[in-house]
């Protein structure tokens, strides 16, 4: 059996959007933000130690703030409709 499958216009639109999303997802560069053109130059320190890196907040730093106390006390539990199913 020979199949003559050709994507319709909506199929081509999905393919085009997928390719565009993948292409734009790779755009950009890793690093800090660019300074404005009239900003004075800043000295960059490149000798970070492991202790300094652990003390900095970040998306991938799971140890940051773990030794700190909670910012707010726990409130009372509010009842929810699905509580009997979840408990």
From TrEMBL:
Keywords assigned by UniProt, alphabetized: Cell outer membrane, Lipoprotein, Membrane, Palmitate, Signal
Cellular component, GO annotation: cell outer membrane
A Pfam family that the UniProt record links to this protein: LptM_cons
Entry annotated with the keyword Lipid metabolism: no
Membrane topology: Lipid-anchor
Keyword check for Transcription: no
Record-annotated membrane-spanning stretches: none
Principal location: membrane
Subcellular location: Cell outer membrane
Start and end residues of each stretch annotated as Disordered: 33-87
Lineage top rank: taxon: Bacteria
Coiled-coil region(s): none
UniProt name for this protein: Lipoprotein
Organism annotation: Bradyrhizobium australiense
Organism phylogeny: Bacteria, Pseudomonadati, Pseudomonadota, Alphaproteobacteria, Hyphomicrobiales
